[in-house]
Each structure stands twice: as structure tokens, then as C-alpha cells.
Request: fold
Amino acid sequence: MNHPRAEIPSILTVLEGDHPRAEDALQITQELIEVLPIPVFYKARDGRYLGVNQAWEDFFSVSRRHIVGSRVADLYPDSPAVAARHKAMDEELWANPGNQSYEVSLHTRDGRLRHTLYYKATFRGPDGRVAGLIGTIIDITERVRSEQRQAIEHSVGTLLGHAQTVAEAITGIIEEMCRRFGWACGARWSLDERENRLHCIEYWAEDDDAILKYLETSSTSTFVPGHAGIIRRTLTTGAPVWVEDLGTKSDFLRAKLAAEAGLQGAFALPIALGERILGAIEFYSREPRPTDPWLLELSIGVGRQIGMLMARREAEEDLRRAHAELEAKARELARSNEELQQFAYVASHDLQEPLRMVSSYTQLLGRRYASHLDADAREFMGYIVEGSARMKQLIEDLLAYSRVGTRVREFRDVSSEAALAKALANLRGAQERTNAAVTHDPLPAVRGDEGQLTQLFQNLVGNALKFRGPDDPRIHVSARAEEGAWLFSVADNGIGLDPQYAERIFLMFQRLHNREEYPGTGIGLAICKKIVDRHGGRIWVEGRPGTGCIFFFTLPMKEEPHAH
Amino acid sequence: MLTRTEGSPPVEILLVEDNAGDYRLTQEALREGKVYNNLHWAKDGVEALDFLRRRGTHGNAPRPDLILLDLNLPKKDGREVLSEIKSDVGLKTIPVVILTTSQAEEDILKSYHLHANCYVTKPVDLEKFIVVVQSIDRFWLTIATLPRT
Reply:
């Protein structure tokens, strides 16, 4: 290691001489080689190292004293495969003199994995025959790593994005990691929290019976979580575990099985989502494998990606389940709506028929036997008929209320002015009787059910006519745009109301007056509220006793045609 | 107003109605009316069609001039009866008046789709009921011109 570096000025001295001699030229060459920043070696025809330069010594952490005279196998005592590769390439070069280049990955003495590009060329002796070779080594580790990182990220991304199931994605990723980084097999494990057992979920292996047998045996076994072993430690601590040589690891339960399968190096990485450990993947190599910090870091990244996929699939599954529940509820709702409609129909027909009998036959009795009945009997019969009539009104109002809830017609753009006009036509009798003046501003088109909007106006205006004050009723309907909706108001000069009842009046059967004062079933405003609710709006009332009321409600604006 | 002259045969009315009370009320209403009539009563849809097609005990049934048909009936309901009458060449010209308690929009629409001649809701009030029945009677049997049978 302490060879003096050749000095550039001495080389220049030789070159500047008038007639450089052959020995000078050789010296120049040797000194040039010595100062090159890339590793250079030269070997004799028999494969023995003739010499190396300083950069070579630095690259391998091997002194030239130890290598000159020995062969390539001596350089790689732990990596027979690498030595064999170089030897084979040397043979090829001897057979076809000239030059060659090839890539090879190797571990240097200090355990670092390097990706290298070898350039080798033959040289000839004075007799003109091939005397040996000279080679240079270019360290392409960074380039190879960045290519590998890109490739693995791409394929993992593709697998995660396109696989139908998590299992399919993970099997694909295990295969990809094995093929790219020289693992012989890999398997995913997960922790069953309920049973507190570890299960092998899926695996991939090279086509090798012994290794497949090992994985099958592993996958049919379950393990209790703990700190020993590879998977157990990874799952428990969330940290990756790298075992350079399983033969030296005493707490590995499957050591014997692994040895039988010819597996020596192992590595396990966590599948993590933040702090949550969702599982672990173990990989095995056929040879002992020095810890590779770069691969370790890359693999942890892959584990995180898988974790995110699993979390996303879980979330999708939750969403799917929630959606299914919602659909079931919607079906249930549709069914109960249908039942309600059925009920409404039964109420309309079957409840009214007996009522009609009671009422009609009481009246028939009155007509035919009037002379046989005294005043009391006629009064009682009057109550029967009046009660029946009220009952019929109640049934009809309840029906109208229940019909609002079951959307028969699709919402469309409707003119609220037209709806008001229809409502006023229906109320003409009452309006004329009370000498009422109903006015309105221009009213907008809204999104809704025209029949229901007519009913809404009819109930509100009808309400104003009914609860009129001492003066002739004056009712005014207007609308203005507010916060993306139309705000309607129906203002009257009637008896007004105590603000404390402002909310109660919209509830079913809530009446503030007795029937003798103001007849009614107490359903009209409940129907209004239901109609406005169904249109996604709000209804409320403002007023004081004696000063009239203003009913407010909001309705959605009509749909604007989509701009293109 | 046109009325049938004394001595002409009575008009034949078929009431299809499951409620005896309604049959009686209809009878009362017609009795007070001006049209000389025979009221026949079928208690369900099957019996109504037997009557119209003179089947079983109805071998000698007359062809009605007017049918008053309730919608909700046992065995075969009014909609089916209406549909069969209106698709039967021999019966389709007989005016069919739907006389029912139902005010449901879908019933009204369905009845007219099935070619009911008119749809009337039974009033709760007796006086009104009588007026309604007599109006039907008078309109279809004395005012409207029907094809000769």
C-alpha cells in the first residue's frame, strides 16, 4: 500500500528527451498505469497476476504483494461464482485474442457490494504470441443502483396498481425482488391478531424442488410471535432483519430445513403503514450474503408501498361494505315507502267505506224516521254525521300528508307563479267569501314538483284566509334570491301568532285554537313543512299577535343548462 | 229533459259492489229517481262477468244498459272486470261508471286507461250520494245517446 506514486514531472522528463529509448517507454507506461485513477491489472498467459496499480489496491483493499503471482480464485475466496466468471472470460479471451468487456457484481474484502464493468485486452510478447492480458475495472455501482431502483419502483408500482388482489400484487413483487436482487425465494407472513399466530400467506421461488419443499413446509406451519427468528423479530419490532449466514444463527427455528434446501443468506423486511406492522416478507439466498445497506433501504421502501396498498384496499373494502349497507338501507326504505303507500291506499278506501255507512245510514234514519225521533235523537244523529265528516277530512289530510313523502314525479323546472295561480283558483270561493286581496311580485322558476308547490301555496294562502283579522285579508306573495336559493314569503294582515308557537304550528295535529273558533285538522302546515323539506328547503314563520304573520320558505333554483 | 215514456221496458242496471250497505243506498237513491229501472247486484268480479256472459245461475240475465262498478272487489277486482268488459266486442259498448270510495290518482288514471266511461267518487253525505247516483242514471240513460243493441 505504501508504494511511492509515480510522479508526473519524471514522466514528462522522459517524454521531453529527443530520443526516448525502449526501456524509457516501458517505464512511462508503468508510471502512467500507476497514476491512473481506475483500477488496472495485468495477468500472464497462465492466469497469474503480473501486477496491479494503486487504484486496484484501493478498490479491493488488497495489497499487490498478496496478489502478484496468485490467480483470480485467490482473490474471491468467498465468491466462487465470481471467480469462475472471470476465469471463463479469461479463457474466452485467450481463445479469441483482442479485447472484451463485461459487467460483474462482486463483494470487496470489506464486504461492500460493487457493480463493475471490466475491460480486458491481450498483449503480445517479443515473439509475437499472446503473452498476457491487461484489464481495467470501472465502478458502475451508482449507475446500476439507480437503474435498479427505477426498475423496481416501476414494476412495484405497476403491480400495485394493476393487480386484482393484494395476494397477486405481493406474489409479483416477491418474484421481481428475487429476480432482480438474486434471492432464491421469498414469502409473505402476517400476524393473526385474534389467534396470535403467524401465517405464511403467499410465496414465490425459483424452480427448485428443495426450496419449494421448504416454503411449503413453512407455509403449513404457524408460529407464535416472539423475538427469535427472522419473521417473528421483524413483525414484533418492525425492523428489518438481515442474516448473512443462517448457519451461524442459533435462534432460527427453521435452520435445519433451510440448510436442507441449500439456503444460507436471509433477509426480512416489514410491511408497514406508519407505526402499524401489517406483515413481513422474508427472502433467502443460496449463498451467505453480506448486509447490503442500499438494498435494505430500498426494500424497506417497497415494504412501505405494499403497506399503503394494503391500507388502501382495506379502506376500499370498508367503503364497499359501507356502500352495501347503505344500499340495503335504501332497499329497506323503498320497501317501507311502498308499504306506506299501500297503507295510505288502504286507509283511503277501507277506512272511508265504514265511515260512509255510518254517516249515510244515520242520515237515512233521519230522513225516513224523522217523525218518530225526538229532538235529542236528532241532535245525537247530528253529532254522528258531523263526527263522520271530520273523520273523513282527517283521513284525507293524512293521506295528502303521506303522499308528499313518496316521490311520484321527478322534480323539474316549474313556474312558481303558475303554481300560485292554480292554488288561488282552488281557493277562489274562500277568497271571494272573505273579500280578500291576494297580490304577488313576479315569481321565479324553481326546481320541484308542481302539484306539491300548488298545495304549498294553497295551504299557506288558505291559512292566511282562515286566520284573518278584523279587516279584509290582504295577502302578498314575493320571492328573492338568497344564498343560491329562492326565499319566498307569504305575508298577511291576520291575527298573527305568539312567537313561542312559531315552531309548534308546523307539527302534525298541533292546533292553537279550538275547533269552534277555527275548524281544521292541524295537518295543513305539517304538509307545508314536509313539501318544503322534500324540496331541500326550510320553512318558518315570523309574527306577533295582532300584527299578521309572514311565512318564509326556501326552494332550490331551477337547473342552469350546463355551459360547454 | 228527456225521460223514458211510461210503458217502455225498464232500464237494466248492473251494480258490481261487495258492500250490502252500498247496494241498499243505491237502491234507495234509484227508487227516488225518475228512471224506471231494474237494479241487479253482483257481489264480486266473478259474479259480474258470469252475469254479463249469462253463465251459471245467470242464464237468463238481461244485457245491462249501464254498469256501476266498484274497484276493490273480492275474487276478481274491478280493474280486471273493466279490462275484460272493454276487450269483449259484445260488451264494450255498455257504459261502465266506476263508483268507488277511492280518490287515488292512480286509480282514476288506471280506470280511464282501461276505457272506463266515467269515474265517480262516492260522497260520504247521503244527500250528495243520492244526487250522484241519480245524476249518473239520468245522464247515461236519458241524456246520452247510446248505440242500439
